[in-house]
Records
---
Amino acid sequence: MKPRILYLTHRTPWPPDRGDRIRTWNILKYLSARADVDLVCLADEPVTQTTRMALEKVTRRLAIVPHSGKRRYIRGALSLACGRTVTEGLFESRVLNSVIKQWAQNTTYTATLASSSGIASYLQRTELDGVRHSWIDLIDVDSQKWLDYSKSAALPMSLVYGLEGRRLRQLECRLAAKSDRMLVVSEAERSLFTDFCADAPIQAVGNGVDTDYFAPANMQVKPHTCCFVGVLNYLPNSDAVSWFCENVWPKVHEKYADAEFQIVGKSPTKEVLALAEMPGVNVVGPVPDVRPWLHQSSCVVVPLRIARGVQNKVLEAMACGRPIVCSPEPLKGLAVEPGLQLLRADSIDQWVDHISRVFEDRFRAEELGIAASAWVHLNHRWESCLEPLNDIVNTSFSEPEREIGVGK
């Protein structure tokens, strides 16, 4: 009989149109090829029949729990007031809890896996005490994300973010003590976690990219164009494009009067939409396929000032063979060599210089794109990145004592 896995995700894994969904979808596909997977997921937006059918194809049993509206934010605030984290309150669902309880009572699971610290506590039930493997995919170290937010936000939100970060760190440590294994997307995230929780059974399992889908294309490049791709109501992304437009783009546009900055992604905020009033800035918004926008751009820019883990937007642009100019933060999770596979910009002047170089030197741009695509093929194909997950479906596997070691 195949191993049986109970997989809990904080958002529906389909469509894979944002970082966490890309990861959970590929993990789900990988596990379903090796085990019977029962998937329980929260849905913070309407679920289409296409989404349901895609998930049903790769699961033995599926439960999608609607979870949207203002009530969850009220629960988040109450959770904070009661000494817990906002995150736990946001993901609180009696329906979800009931589904897990019912399934656990009538199914013997080989393993459980939760995506993110905010929902991991659901799987720590007495009905699941006999499960052989209890894993949590933290994805990123969320506590550090909130602590980073606190440094860049103004009062009073800086205090709220700081409190959330400290409480999440306590929660992460408690989860580490109760889990057989925890996963993060990079060695940098693993090292960060062990700095405050030294004996955590934590392993780096990197993100991959579909290199067949995101592949170089023989498409005409539009001169003097920059492109950014990301979910635009996500604070690190909205902060990135706002900072870039305010500090870098005016200098680029002054040098190249025909220059265009294409901001591509779903859910642009009012602040992001307002950037379209600047000369040469085009807020494209959501598109059915980001690849044409990547392929037609002279370069892809990733000016993130707040970044955790491995940025899928970087991997996808690299796989497409595009020259990339990137801030330092997203590179902490990637073992790239700046200057070879992409360009790193540490200052406003460097941003302008690197973009100008890519605009003007076609051969340099092609060199960067070729090196980027080759590096992704070698280091970030999903099949090889997810090999450590074989342990969770191996029923004879015995966890070593709290010592996991270095993963892929």
---
Amino acid sequence: MLKAILIDCIPPNLSQEEAEYRILEAENLIKTYGGVVLVKKIQKKLIPNYATYLGSGKIDEIIEENETAEKDKKANIIIINNELKPRQTYNLSEKIRKHDLKVWDRIDLILKIFQKHASTKEAKLEIELASIKHMGPRIFGMGIELSRQAGGIGTRGRGETNIEFMRRHLKKMEQSIKKDLEKCRKVRKLHRKSRKRKNLKTIGIIGYTNAGKTSLLNTLTGKGAMAADKLFATLDTRVGKLVFPPKTLREKSAGQHAPLEPNFGQRPPSEVLISDTIGFIQNLPPQLIKSFQSTLEETIEADLLLHVIDISDPKMNDKIKTVNEILAQIDVLTKPSIYVFNKTDIPHKKDKAALARKYKKYTPCFVSTYKKEGIENLKDTIRQRIFTLSSSDAQ
């Protein structure tokens, strides 16, 4: 079992509230992996130590506390809630190795969670690719160790041979994985072409991890996908069909949005396809997002996005910002979207009317997937938005 010492290094001017939130989210990541946090520490430092990230005093303090702890309270890993440079990972690992400790950074932890939860071939390939990209630069440290065994750094001995061998091996693995992923992309592309021929519109569900995306997919489509109250419960793209009841838009009951007039001889859609994929989280490096490009293609190619937001979350506004930053990275920030404020059954202090005004251009809807409240209004809103997009295409 993973027994962790969790450490976060933060700027001195970061607020207490933000510091506590960062460490709590990291702790939830560790729990999602199946580990337990024995010790939490926050070090305020403007610039992390270049060689070991943590200061030498902090490292000695951590080692001493762990050595003197009772047997059942001894940790076996130090997890840094930041991304470490290869040199920092190697140097820190060297300092703690003889004390039966290893070190992961935040990206290592996220990748380990991904590995546990992925089920499809495509998701597993993307995680393997992301792991290679993260691990690749770290062979620097392995090379130093092998060079020592060969008789010293700078010699053309076994160390240099092995480091070059590992680089070539990882490069071949990366090329092989990319070829397999390209095959998956081609299959997805054929599926999308087939949908377009049938004039089937597609909707992508996106949002911060654990906002309720999979629960919404299940509620709208009856897909029956596994939904769980933990981070990154969904990694694989799942697609379901939302079938609208046989009624015209004019027959829509009075509600938040005025009914739209049919035009251009078009009829409202009778069904749409909805896809759910990986959730987002703060501080995901661009290279990690790029590794999941294939899975995210369903979102990139969708006609409409449902941005699911946990209205009960105290950090709601920050998480909306995080999701939008990632959407900008994959060039879909301007795609037509509906903001779906979920978990309205959980007590919160948000003003729905104020949110409706603030995000008016995103035709916000308020739902509880748990109590199935607001779902019919959301379906009507989706139908109207899709109809409007179809009408615009016809022009």
